[in-house]
Write a structure and sequence with these properties.
This protein has about 350 residues and is an alpha/beta fold. It has 12 helices and 8 strands.
Length: about 350
C-alpha cells in the first residue's frame, strides 16, 4: 500500500537522532560551530580530475561541498557522479537532488545509490524550469516537488519503506536539507514555506544569494518568531561578484537572485580591474554581518567559476579556525569555553 505524505515529528537540531551523527556537516552544525559549505561547479567533462581540482581548493575550508544538480537547467556532469568522486577522495559531499528531471522511481533509486556510495547529506530542491536553460525543448518531469521529495527521503530513512510501502532492507542514513529564497516575493510567505519544509523533514537550509541584509534580517526575525531556528539549521547563501557585468547578468538572468542597486553602484565606483577584489570584499562584509544574526548557523558560498577565492573569503571573514556561533548553547561549546580552572567567558 502506498504511504501518505503526512507530517513527521520534527527533531530538535540540538540533539542528533539516536545519539549518532550521520555526517561531518551534521556534527559541525550540532556542535554549535559556524558551518561553511560551498558549491563545486560541475564540469562539462568526463574527466574526474576536473572535479578533484575544483574540490581540493574547497576541502580545507569547508564542512561540506555541494554537488550541483544541473542548476539553471543547464546540463553538466551529474551530481551523484560528482558525489561518488568526492567520497572516493575523502571529501564531504552535499548531494543536490532536483525534481525537474527524474520521477519518483528514479529519485528513490538515486537516494539509495548515493547512500551506498557513502553520501550522507542531501539537499532536496524542485529545480529551475527547463526554459531557464540552453535546452528549453527538454521535457520537464516535476513528478515531485521539493517538499514531497523531503517527505520521500525522510520516509525511506525513518520508516524504511519506499513511497509504495515496500520495505527496504537497509534504510539510507541521510541528513536532509532544503533551499529557501528570502528575497523572492511574497516575502512574508517565505518563512511559512520554510516551516512546511521543516515539517516534511528538512534539518538544514541553504538560502539563495544574500545581498540584501535588511531583507534577510526581516526573514530571520520571522523564522525565529515561528520557533524554526530551534528545529533546523540555516546557512545564508553568499558569493563574490566578479564584475559589474556579472552582477547585472545575475540579477537579470539567474532565477531568484536579487542584487540591490547599491551593490551595483559600489562596484561601478571602482576601476574595472579592481571590481573582482571589490566583489570579494562585499562578500566578506556580508558574511560578517549575517554571522551576527541569531539563528544563522553558517554560510553557503557560491563562487561560480571562482572556487579559488573561497579559501580567501573564509579566512578574511574570520571563519578559521571554525568559530562557535554566538547564539549557540550546546555542551560542546560550554566544554570548549569553560575549561577546568578557568573562569567562564
Amino acid at each position: 500500500m502506498a504511504v501518505e505524505m503526512s507530517d513527521p515529528v520534527v527533531l530538535s537540531p540540538s540533539s542528533p537522532p539516536n545519539g549518532e551523527y550521520r555526517s561531518r556537516l551534521e556534527r559541525v552544525l550540532r556542535s554549535g560551530r559556524f558551518a561553511v559549505t560551498a558549491e563545486l561547479n560541475p564540469p562539462d567533462s568526463a574527466d574526474p580530475q576536473e572535479v578533484y581540482d575544483a574540490a581540493v581548493v574547497l576541502s580545507s575550508v569547508c564542512d561540506g561541498i555541494n554537488a550541483v544538480d544541473a542548476s539553471g537547467a543547464n546540463c553538466h556532469m551529474s551530481s551523484v557522479a560528482i558525489c561518488a568522486l568526492l567520497t572516493r577522495a575523502g571529501y564531504e559531499p552535499v548531494y543536490q537532488v532536483s525534481c525537474r528531471d527524474r520521477n519518483r522511481i528514479a529519485i528513490q533509486g538515486d537516494l539509495l545509490g548515493a547512500a551506498a556510495l557513502g553520501v550522507r547529506n542531501v539537499l532536496c530542491i524542485t529545480g529551475d524550469d527547463v526554459t531557464a536553460g540552453d535546452q528549453p525543448q527538454a521535457k520537464r518531469v516535476f513528478d515531485l516537488d521539493s517538499i514531497q521529495l523531503l517527505h520521500t527521503a525522510r520516509l525511506m530513512r525513518d520508516k524504511g519503506v519506499y513511497l509504495s510501502g515496500r520495505k527496504l532492507t537497509v534504510p539510507p542514513p541521510l541528513f536532509l536539507g532544503a533551499a529557501e529564497n528570502p528575497f523572492a516575493p511574497p516575502f512574508d510567505w517565505r518563512p511559512q514555506r520554510l516551516a512546511k519544509k521543516v515539517s516534511a523533514g528538512a534539518e538544514f537550509f541553504q538560502t539563495q544569494y544574500c545581498f540584501d541584509i535588511p531583507r534577510f534580517q526581516h526573514f530571520m526575525a520571522h523564522v525565529r518568531d515561528l520557533g524554526l531556528t530551534e528545529k533546523c539549521f540555516i546557512l545564508a547563501g553568499v558569493g563574490p561578484l566578479r564584475s559589474v557585468g556579472a552582477a547585472e547578468f545575475m540579477r537579470s538572468k539567474v532565477p531568484g537572485v536579487y542584487i540591490p542597486d547599491a551593490v551595483i553602484k559600489r562596484l561601478k565606483r571602482v576601476p574595472k580591474h579592481q571590481q573582482r577584489t571589490e566583489g570579494k570584499k562585499i562578500c566578506v562584509e556580508i558574511i560578517q554581518q549575517v554571522r551576527e544574526l541569531p539563528g544563522v548557523a553558517g554560510v553557503h558560498i557560491m563562487a561560480y567559476r571562482q572556487e579559488e577565492l573561497v579559501a580567501e573569503i573564509v579566512e578574511e571573514a574570520g571563519l578559521l579556525p571554525r568559530p562557535f556561533r554566538t547564539d549557540a548553547s550546546h555542551p560542546a561549546r560550554e566544554r570548549h569555553l569553560h575549561r577546568p580552572g578557568e573562569p567562564a567567558r
